[in-house]
Amino acid sequence: MADRRIRLRFSGIVQGVGFRPFIYRLAVEHGLVGWVRNRHDGVVVEVEGPPDSLERFLADVEKKRPPRAEVAEITAEEIPAGGERDFRILLSDKEGAKSVRIPPDIATCPDCLRELFDPGDRRFRYPFINCTNCGPRLTIIQDVPYDRANTSMACFPLCPRCRSEYENPADRRFHAEPNACPDCGPRLELLDGGGNRLNAADPLGRAVEALRCGWVLALKGLGGFHLAVDATNDEAVRRLRARKFREEKPLALMVRDLETAARVAELGEEEVDLILSHERPIVLAKKKAGAGLSEAVAPGVPNQGIMLPYTPLHHLLLQEPLRVLVMTSANQADEPICIGNREAVERLRGIADFFLVHNRDILVRCDDSVATVVAGRKRFSRRSRGFAPKPLVLRQSYPDVLALGPQMKTTVCILKGRLAYLSPHIGDMETPQARDFHRRSIVLMQKIADCRPGIVACDMHPAYFTTLEARGLKDVRVVPVQHHHAHIVSCMAENGLSGDVIGLAMDGTGYGSDGTAWGGEFLVATEDAFARVGHLKTFLLPGGEKAVREPWRTGVSLLREVFPDRWREVAERLELLPEKESGRWMERILSAGFNSPPTSSLGRVFDGTATILGLHRRVSFEGQAAMGLEAVAGEKNGLPYPFDILEGENGLVLDLFPAVRALVVALERGVSVEEVSRSFHTTVVEALTATAVEIRRRTGLNRVALSGGCFQNRILLEGCLEELGGSGFEVFSHEQVPTNDGGVSLGQAVVAGARVKKGL
Fold first, then answer.
1. Which of 26, 55, 105, 415 has the smallest C-beta neighbourhood within 10 Å, fewest atoms?
2. pLDDT of 476-513, one tens digit each?
3. Which residues contact 125 (CB under 8 A, 6 or more apart)?
4. Residue 100: per-residue pLDDT
5. Higher model confidence: residue 527 or residue 447?
6. What would be the CATH architecture of the domain defined by 102-185?
7. 188-370: same fold as 102-185?
8. Which CATH number applies to 188-370: 3.40.190.10, 3.90.870.40, 3.20.20.70, 3.30.565.10?
9. Per-residue pLDDT averaged across 530-548, rounded?
10. Is 89 exposed, middle or buried (0-12, 13-18, 19+ CB in 10 A)?
11. Residue 279 scores a pLDDT above 60
12. Of the given ranges (568-577, 673-682, 713-722), which has the lowest mean pLDDT?
């Protein structure tokens, strides 16, 4: 039978993951001829040989592909035979539209780890060891295709031995773009707190000794710098907190191995899988007592954020005697993580005692991802290193859209066809550094997607930086998207939903269509439109944004709603007021409505309830009071408190004030804070479910989408999944993007794309 020739095109994550040498070795194994090459739109293969050999080759491509390759689509066509005598790997083709997917950074693979600790290997203890199955990707790239010349490794010429590996298709390091060794690659340096180079023959050893002595080390990693201290040294941890002005927000830990992780936190099978995954996120898991860690690592919360080493440098740092390090992002409050050596020295002066740096530039800023397991599924608090910029595949194709995200926990999203490219985590838009990072992220994502959309989506809030940025762009159509509609559509998009759904958008505050602060919303939503069919009963937020930092103010507002004639007496008995005169001037403020906007926010109800229970009258980070309320909740389900579902002018009004009254009465009767907190959580779950049931009765809709920062609360999310499911609903929640504002840009992009597609 005559030979056949087939042209194949593979799209997806197929560059930087050893796909071409895999194809080469497979073709040679099956006695085929032809070639393989990188292109801007993926990898193209022309393969020729006997039909039965081609069939076996195609079957093996499907079964044996490299571990980090993700093939999204394969196209095949039969073409005339070419008559080659061998199979070759051709140089990259730089022509055509760029649609290749850039791989995320990948944790050190077992093969490289084995070589790292092998005294007989030429890369023994080399902190930058990598191969096609691991190492930096996104964080060192300038452009596509993913070739060495387009990375920060371009300035490190390969030595003869590394060049031989790089050019040998049978080698594990064939076209491993960051490939290097001690003779030709990046090197470590140790600097003092002023940025002066120390004459250290062994910079790593000196850094380990500094950590042992309790000093603060700034460490250059994959996507930025970390600040590290020995997690068992209480004085060192408290010193780091004081210098970074991070009073109480939990600090992440990096632990040597899974055995150490199990000593620090309670790990189920799902948490173990997540911790061991090649993405290596920070995993939130329940703390274990007696782990020997400083109490200052994660005070007042039930969970501990832990991750395993994901670079060779981390593995070397965590050898004896260090087993657990605090490893927190190197920045000041609201600023992005440091990436440059000089930048780190300038911005971290007075925080770090030493800097362990190297001369491989970080080109893309990328924080650690943060995830947890709820109801048996992975849930993101932050989607960044290891996952970005891997795109989500959507149910349908949309026009090209750039979405600029909200004001907090910001990400940028670009829609191109059926793909949604989300940037790494950017953060809160409060500082010039964060805003500059946002602008750079837009440029990065446009390069990655090879797309400069003429449609720009943003939040409706007129004062958000991202909104003002959108309005300042020229020659684009700006599409404002309501914050909570974006939340629900982000959940719909990642779950492949279209048509009407009941959306439960529960968060802090977001700008509503009526100009008020929403935050506890029941929507009937499609991708391009929504109706507000219900909301929490509104209350005043005394001091506006100040009430977020001082949630005792919200507690006062709730007490005034339920005890209008004697709220000051109740507040004094609960020791809620910070000063004796606070009650008098709070009454004046609330009576006049001075700087006290109405809100329907469930997040603020959680904050206020926490302060009524005696928790966190003031907070040092967003969400701290609500986290404290969840942390003290008992294990057993509490009896629910009363609530009302009222008929409002424009839909249903869920009134939780009866529950607030009941929990105050319970406290006054001597019921424990643990029991009251659990009963309050139970009440909210039942109230949300009952409201959804009433909306179903009126609309006939049976699908519910859950989104918003409140669903980071494990008790609330698990309870709603169970209660809504038990009431016959199809329930959808977030697994691929954060339920908090980190997923809003996806919703913004899809709403804008859907509207333009429909001609709206």
1. 55
2. 999 999 999 999 999 999 999 999 999 999 999 999 99
3. 116, 117, 204, 316
4. 57
5. 527
6. Alpha-Beta Complex (3.90)
7. yes
8. 3.90.870.40
9. 95
10. middle
11. yes
12. 568-577
Q: What is the pLDDT of residue 102?
A: 78
**How many other C-beta atoms can be found within 10 angstroms of the C-beta atom of residue 545?**
12
Alpha carbon of residue 687 to chain centroid: 29
Contacts 24+ apart (CB under 8 A), 257-264: 257/308, 258/308, 260/323, 260/324, 261/306, 261/308, 263/288, 263/291, 264/288, 264/291, 264/293, 264/304, 264/306, 264/324
Is 446 a residue whose pLDDT tops 80?
yes
Annotated domain spans of the chain: 4-89, 102-185, 188-370
Residue 153 Rama label (left phi>0; alpha psi -120 to 50; beta):
alpha
Residue 507: in which H helix or E strand, if any?
Answer: strand 501-511
Q: How far is CA 454 from the centre of its chain?
A: 27
Average pLDDT score over the chain: 94
Q: Which of 113, 21, 5 has its CA nearest to residue 65?
A: 21
Q: Is the confidence at residue 557, as pLDDT, over 90?
A: yes
Q: Is 477 exposed, middle or buried (0-12, 13-18, 19+ CB in 10 A)?
A: middle
Show the CA angle centred on residue 555, arms to residues 551 and 558, nearest 5°: 135
Would you state the structure tokens that stand for residue 11, as one six-digit string?
């799209």
Structure tokens at 149: 């010349």
Instruction: Enter the DSSP assignment of 596.
Output: -
DSSP conformation class of 710? G
In this structure, what are the phi and psi dihedrals at residue 445, rounded to the nearest 5 degrees? Answer: -65, -35
Q: Which of 85-99, 410-424, 444-458 has the lowest mean pLDDT?
A: 85-99
- Of 300, 287, 289, the closest CA to residue 626 belongs to 300
Regarding pTM above 0.90, the answer is yes
378: β partners = 373
Pairwise CA distance, residues 30 & 60, whole Å: 10
Instruction: Check if the beta carbon of residue 104 is closer than 8 Å to that of residue 54.
Output: no
As a whole number of angstroms, the distance between CA 75 and CA 96 comes to 17
| pLDDT score, position 95 | 55
Return the structure tokens found at 237: 């941890």
The DSSP call for residue 94 is -
Q: Is the pLDDT of residue 305 over 80?
A: yes
Beta bridge partners of 703: 730
User: Residue type at 695?
Assistant: I
Q: What are phi and psi of 369, to 5 degrees?
A: -75, 150
Predicted confidence at residue 82, as pLDDT, reads: 82
* pLDDT at residue 226 in the model: 98
Q: Which two tokens stand for residue 549?
A: 């930092």
3-class secondary-structure state, position 210? helix
CA distance to 562, 579, 595, 656, per residue, from 568 (Å): 12, 12, 20, 20
* 144-182 pLDDT per residue, tens: 777 899 999 999 999 999 999 999 988 999 889 999 999
Distances (CA, A) of 515 to 309, 461, 482, 523: 47, 8, 11, 17
Q: CA 75 to CA 102: how far, in whole Å?
A: 20
- Domain 4-89 grouped into CATH 3.40.630.30: no
Hey, what are 121's tokens? 């290997």
H helix count then E strand count, the chain? 23, 29
3 state SS of 531: strand
Phi, psi of 597, rounded to the nearest 5 degrees: -65, 145
Closest to 145 (Cα-Cα) out of 97, 180, 108: 97
Per residue in 39-65, pLDDT (tens digit) is: 877 899 999 999 999 999 999 998 888
* pLDDT band, very low/low/confident/very high, at 67 (cuts 50, 70, 90): confident
Half-sphere exposure of 633 (CA within 13 A, CB side): 26
